[in-house]
Amino acid sequence: MKRVVVTGMAGLTSLGNDWAGIEAAFSAGRSGIRRMPEWDRYTELNTRLAGPVDDFAVPGHWTRKQLRSMGRVSRLAVAAAERALADAGLLDDPSIRDGRMGVACGSSTGSTEEIKAFGNMLLNSVADGLNANSYIRMMPHTTAANVSIFFGLTGRVIPTSSACTSGSQGIGYAYEAIKFGRLPLMLAGGAEELCATEAMVFDALYATSLMNDAPQRSPRPYDRDRDGLVIGEGAGMLVLEELEHALARGATIHAELVGFGSNADGQHATKPEQATMRRAMELALEDAGLAPQAIGYVNGHGTATEQGDIAETLATEALFGRGMPISSQKSFLGHTLGACGALESWFTIEMLNRDRYVPTLNLDNVDPRCGELDYVTGNPRAMQHEYVMNNNFAFGGVNTSLVFRRWT
């Protein structure tokens, strides 16, 4: 078995596109959530809250030809991948284009502008707005395909369009590809473009926050007074690399990825199951060869939904006990869906390396129905750990868990 390390990390968020800026917002207790007046025209949509990436601009060196096949979600993914490759010192390295690097990433959906155009064809029998690239921008694996094509990567492509676990499954499957010796390099992560349809998915389930006049006070993961989730936008990418390959080229190593667990609830499409959530964490620990006591911190999924918060924290308590520190960055960014597993893995590694852990924003009164855990609140907390875990759980009953080790 090969050892797998992280040599590049990057992301785009509603709080900025570099760790220094994002961490400053975390420390100041400033969220990226705002009211969306552009959604007022959707009269049956109750929520008006979201965490958009307002400052994204297409880089000037991207060509018109490159852009033709990319909707917004793919542009976010490719931009994050470009930054991650630069961080890894591989952006201009020809070795990534000779079959040694692959891609594993996904999103909840392709670009919805194209879905709208195809819907218009079905409803009104016209093909306005459709062209040869419309499907490419809409297809479920648009992010993985566009990342591969943009950088000329000819290794394996693993699409992971599994809603809220798209990013973490991308990282997990990329890790396994390297671990089992299939290739030494993988770009892994996920992305999501903001769309009112995504908010409507949860609105129809009575699961969105309605604190429309107080955007900085929502979402509220694990809080007694939560009123639902907030949709976010963004992209996150990691460069995963086989250890000996990384050492041979003198790469900077951010962390080692030592465990991955994934399973299914097998019960209900939207109701999470505590037992299988716990089992996903156990699978990651077994893969890493670790006992539960080795984990120092859990980056929780923390969607600020009643069923999700309760099931997740009870599963975490059942495995780790009452003293496990836990927090959720969705309290700052909203739920970035396909991007969250990758962004939260990036944040987890940054916190691990800096011994400074981000609290859950807006967590004032822990819901007594949640598990008895050490909820990190208020200011960032100084802690030093060797192993940390990042968990994500998705519609369809998909569960993922990743374990990272400090690199020394």
Write a compact overview of the structure shown.
The chain is of the alpha/beta class and 408 residues long. It has 13 helices and 16 strands. The longest helix has 16 residues, at 72-87.
Distance separating the two termini: 21 Å
Unreliable spans: none
* Structural class assignment: alpha/beta
- Strand content is 15-25%
How many domains make up the coordinates? 2
Can you identify the CATH class of the largest domain? Alpha Beta
Mean pLDDT: 97
Assign the CATH superfamily of the largest domain.
Thiolase/Chalcone synthase
Oligomer: single chain
Number of DSSP strand runs: 16
Q: Using the coordinates shown, work out and report the CATH topology of the largest domain.
A: Peroxisomal Thiolase, Chain A, domain 1
As a whole number of angstroms, the C-alpha radius of gyration is: 20 Å
Largest sheet: 11 strands, mixed
Folded structure, characterized:
The chain is an alpha/beta fold and 408 residues long. The protein has two domains: 4-248, 3-Layer(aba) Sandwich (Peroxisomal Thiolase, Chain A, domain 1); 261-406, Thiolase/Chalcone synthase (Peroxisomal Thiolase, Chain A, domain 1), CATH 3.40.47. The protein is 33% helix and 20% strand. It has helices at 19-28, 64-67, 72-87, 112-124, 134-138, 142-151, 166-179, 196-203, 243-248, 274-288, 306-320, 330-333, 340-354; strands at residues 4-12, 34-35, 49-51, 101-106, 157-159, 185-192, 231-232, 234-242, 255-264, 295-299, 325-327, 356-357, 374-375, 381-382, 387-394, 398-406. The strands form three sheets. It has an eleven-stranded mixed β-sheet with strand order 5-4-6-8-1-9-16-15-10-11-13, with helices on both faces. A three-stranded mixed β-sheet has the order 2-3-7, with no helix packed on it. Strand 10 (295-299), helix 11 (306-320) and strand 11 form a beta-alpha-beta unit. The chain is globular. The protein starts with a strand and ends with a strand. The mean pLDDT is 97.
